[in-house]
Amino acid sequence: MCKIVLLGTMVIGTAFLSAFPISVNWSAAQKTFTVSQDKAVAAVGKPLSAGSVAGVHRRQERRHTPPK
Q1: For 33-68, how does the pLDDT look when each residue is reduced to its tens digit (9 = 90+)?
Q2: Residue 22, beta-bridge partner list
Q3: In DSSP terms, which residues pair with 25 in a beta bridge?
Q4: CB within 8 Å of 55: residues ≥ 6 apart
Q5: Which residues neighbour 26 within 8 Å (Cβ) at sequence distance 6 or greater?
Q6: What is the structure's pLDDT at 4?
Q7: Which of 13, 16, 19, 45 is the most exposed place for a label (fewest CB within 10 A)?
Q8: For the segment 18-38, what is each residue's pLDDT rounded down to a tens digit?
């Protein structure tokens, strides 16, 4: 019975942490748990870096397209 309750708690906890953008962190130095909300910021139309596929493709097009 105890194993079933522990397994159910783990499954529900995993489902909860997967569904919501939160992180649970353990600090060994202070021996405490911290819960924080994860944040994602996305900029549409901007490449991640100068070497990203989208940025390289745009530069290639500009270099190989004759001026009008």
Answers
A1: 888 887 776 666 665 555 556 667 776 666 666 666
A2: 37
A3: 34
A4: 47, 49
A5: 32, 33
A6: 93
A7: 45
A8: 888 788 888 888 888 888 887
CA distance 30 to 63: 56
Decide: pTM greater than 0.85.
no
Which residues 6+ apart lie within 8 Å of 40 measured at CB? 21
Q: How many domains does the chain have?
A: 1
Give the whole-angstrom CA distance, residue 61 versus residue 40.
30
Q: Are 39 and 25 in contact (CB under 8 A)?
A: no
Helices (DSSP H) in the chain: which residue ranges?
A: 2-19, 53-64
Encoding tokens for residue 22?
């939160």
Among 15, 16, 33, 32, which residue's Cα sits nearest to residue 24?
Answer: 33
